Amino acid sequence: MKQFESFALDTANECLWHEGAQIALASKPFSVLRYLVENPGRLISHDELLDALWPETYVQPQVLRTYVLELRKILNDDAKEPRFIQTVPKRGYSFVAAVTEKASAASGADEVAQLIGPTPTDLVGRDDEILRLQTIALQAAAGQRQVVFITGEAGIGKTSLINAFRNVSSQTCMAWGHCVEGLSEKEPYYAVLEALAHCFTSTDHEKPAAGAARLRTSQDRPAELCEALEELGKDKLFVLVIEDIQWAHQSTLELVAALARRSTPARLLVIATYRPLHHSTKFYLKSIKQDLVVRQLSTELALEPLCKLSVRRLLSRRLHQEELPAELGDFIYQRSGGNPLFANALLDHMIAERSIVRRGAESDSRWEQIVSISNLEVSVPQELARLIELEIDRLSPEEQRVLEAGSLMNIAFPVWAAAAALGENQETVEELCDGLERRTGLVRRAGHDDLPNGTRSDFYAFAHEFYREVLYQRQTTSRRAKGHIRIAEALTALFAGCEATVAREVALQYEAAGSWHRTISALRAGASHSRERNAYQDSAQLLTRALQIAENLSEPERSAIADEIAVELQTLRGATGATRSQQQRAS
User: Fold this and answer.
1) Secondary structure string (H, E, C) spanning 295-308
2) Residue 89 to residues 97, 498, 538: CA-CA distances in angstroms?
3) Residue 486 covered by a domain
4) Single pTM value for the model
5) Measured on CA atoms in the order 408, 484, 491, 43, is the torsion positive or negative?
6) DSSP code at position 364
7) Contact at 8 Å (CB) between 42 and 28?
């Protein structure tokens, strides 16, 4: 555990703590913070960070600025007077706070665990959340009514958490209802009535059944509805679960708010789940939830992605073996972003594609990895791609085109690039991106970039790499190529007079478009710029890449360009040798 001021970085479980409370931190920002904390008091260059966190992968330096901005918000750190992360302009970052080692802290749930006993559940990485739910259930069972909102992105495990809670909390009566898109919004109390219909069909629940009948006859009188539900908890704790409450009719939301605000004792626990940034999540729901939380009349459990250790445990349980195939855990953790649904889908996909296979006798068989991770290309699993497509299809055509344009860059994209790809006004695209962030959560604002022409352009990042991949693949080849070329041309125009400084980025866009001549030209321009700065190794890499791209050309053009590049490489070797000789004489 790395301690700095009131923060503690748990490197074993990959999470951040502040004064005993765990702070939500995604995997990449955590990795950036960890690298800085483990190297305090010295300059960490942009290149060092990029090489450490994205080896063998080209990532735009702007991504680092995005993550550092996010970390500063979490740490409440002022860039002008930094307590933790100091920016060294045009060079990198330095972690300036004192860092000490301390023993890992306990989860803070030991006392509660003694009261309610162990939590025998197969759910991975949610022990604290289950203990929290059980603690809240104890309070509700004592007559202190409780309302809990469980929030998180699709696939994060909201339903699984409630199932695990139900399995370890048997001394309850639980009713479970689901809000259905397009139906629940139109029918008052749809999920509540469904929950009661499914729960109280047997003859063992005469009193609850009577309460359910009273509920049905009191739909127009909210106070009587509350009394009817409270009656169901007369003998033992009654738990009402409402899933996907973002699709609920307003009457259902008002009922939950009324239940929370009533002051009379009741053995009642209401658990509602929703995706906080889903496009259908109503402002009314958000305002009700926030009001109840502020007044301490409800609790929010925000589920974050699983840490690396929990993803490994998840895979071990799925494969029924403690030791995982080499690098499998890291690969699935990075690709899934810690989302349990994504991790399980990736594992199923790799098994179906025979990237990992089961070998050995049945009694002693083991899963083995037969394809090296460095050579592994795993596309978005088909079932996940369908779910993402459904999410995208709910957006307006203009919003879909903006996201598709953004996918031409990387997981993070500047507004100017999306506008250039579409041939649209930058301000219009910025407004669409802002709306997408507020309504959908598919993208989030990740800072801004100061452009050479004196203007600023916001950066947005996709919620997950899978969204970006699906958006990229759903475009036709010709449309993608046109967008890449427009972005390359916009880059060249923005950096007019110093185009060579962005030659690598320009080349990447032309290469993605299959424009081989312009790719080679940009790479050679970048190599020339690097040579002028005596960055001979970088220059050689760019020229070598230009040679590889030239293989796409037909003869005799290919040979002519290859000969020209060979001369440039020879000149470069000569300059490198001369520099070494000078250094040796100087030493």
Assistant:
1) CCCCEEEECCCCCH
2) 19, 20, 22
3) no
4) 0.69
5) positive
6) G
7) no
Per-residue pLDDT reduced to its tens digit, 91-148: 889 999 988 876 544 443 343 333 333 444 568 889 888 888 888 988 898 889 999 9
CA distances from 289 to 95, 140, 185, 258, 273 (A): 37, 19, 18, 12, 11
Q: How many residues are there in the chain?
A: 587
Residue 424, CA atoms < 13 Å, CB-side half-sphere: 21
Question: Rounded to an integer, what distance in angstroms lies between the CA atom of residue 287 and that of residue 284?
Answer: 5
Domain extent, residue 461, equals 379-475
Q: Which residues contact 477 (CB under 8 A, 6 or more apart)?
A: none
Considering only the C-alpha atoms of the chain, give the largest distance between any 2 of them, rounded to a whole number of Å.
Answer: 98
Which residues touch 165 (CB under 8 Å, ≥6 apart)? 130, 133, 134, 137
Place of tokens 């009535």: 193
Please report how the helices 62-75 and 27-37 are oriented relative to each other, as an axis angle in degrees rounded to 10: 80
CA-to-CA distance for 536 and 540, rounded, in angstroms?
A: 6
pLDDT of residue 522: 92
111, part of any domain: no
pLDDT tens for each residue of 387-420: 899 889 989 999 999 999 999 998 899 999 999 9
Quote the CA–CA distance of 518 and 532 in Å, as a whole number: 21
Q: What is the DSSP string of 452-500?
A: TTS-EEEEEEESSHHHHHHHHHTS-HHHHHHHHHHHHHHHHHHTTT-GG
Token pair in block for residue 178: 């689901």
Tokens 């080499």 sit on residue: 326
User: Within 13 Å, how many C-alpha atoms sit on residue 376's CB side?
Assistant: 23
**432 lies in the same domain as 552:** no
SS3 category, 102: coil
Give the position of tokens 């960070």: 49
Shared domain for 366 and 403, answered yes or no, is no
Indicate if 196 and 267 belong to the same structural domain. yes
The single-letter code of the amino acid at 467 is: Y
Question: Within a domain: residue 522?
Answer: yes
Rounded CA gap, 267 and 138, in Å? Answer: 9
**Spatial separation of the C-alpha atoms in residues 550 and 569, rounded to whole Å:** 15
Closest CA to 443 of 256, 262, 277: 277
**Do 21 and 85 sit in the same domain of this protein?**
yes
Residue 188: closest CA among 278, 254, 275: 254
CA angle (413 as vertex; 408, 415 as ends), nearest 5:
105
Q: What is the mean pLDDT of residues 551-566?
A: 91
The residues with which 449 forms a beta bridge, in sequence order, are: 457
β pairing state of 2-4 and 92-95? unpaired
Tokens read off for 557:
């053009």
Report which of 71, 37, 31, 72 is spatially closest to residue 55, judged by C-alpha positions: 31
Strand pairing category for 456-462 and 412-414: antiparallel
Based on the number of CB atoms within 10 Å of its own CB, is 36 exposed (0-12), middle (13-18) or buried (19 or more)? buried
CB-based contact 3:100 (threshold 8 Å): yes
